[in-house]
Amino acid sequence: TLWSYIVQIANAIKTVHDRGLAVRQVDLVTKIIHTGKNRVRLSTCGVLDMFAFGQMQDVGLIQQHDLAEFGKLIIQLACQNAGAHNALPKAVDTMSRHYSPDLKALAIYLYSKNAFKSISHVFDMLGPARLLQEIDNAQE
C-alpha cells in the first residue's frame, strides 16, 4: 500500500513539475486525499501561486521543496507518525526494520537538503516493477 501511495503521489508531482509549476504543499494531514481503495490525490496544488500572482519566484527552488516535502511524507507514512521527520535517526531505524532498503533510500534522497533532486530520478529509484504493479492495480 505504501509503495502504491508513493507511486501515485510521485506521478502527481511529476505531472505538475513537467508543466513548469510546483505543488507547494505535500502535507500528510491536510493535502493528501484518500479517495478509494488505495487511491490518493493531491489537493490545493497551485493555490499558493494564486496568492503570489505576479511575484517573481524561483520555480526550480520551489520544486526542490516539493521533493523534500515528499520525502518527509514518506517518512511520516512509513513510521505512522506525523512528527517522525523531527527525529530522523529514529525514523531511519524504524524504516530499516520494517521496510526495504529501497524505501529508506528513496525517503533519505528526497528529504536530504544536500543534493539537487529530480522527480525523474525518483522514477528511476522506483523501478519499472513497482510502476507496472501500480498500473495493474489501477486496472483491477
TrEMBL record:
<dbReference type="GO" id="GO:0000932">
    <property type="term" value="C:P-body"/>
</dbReference>
<dbReference type="InterPro" id="IPR030844">
    <property type="entry name" value="PAN3"/>
</dbReference>
<dbReference type="GO" id="GO:0031251">
    <property type="term" value="C:PAN complex"/>
</dbReference>
<dbReference type="GO" id="GO:0000289">
    <property type="term" value="P:nuclear-transcribed mRNA poly(A) tail shortening"/>
</dbReference>
<dbReference type="GO" id="GO:0008143">
    <property type="term" value="F:poly(A) binding"/>
</dbReference>
<protein>
    <recommendedName>
        <fullName>Protein kinase domain-containing protein</fullName>
    </recommendedName>
</protein>
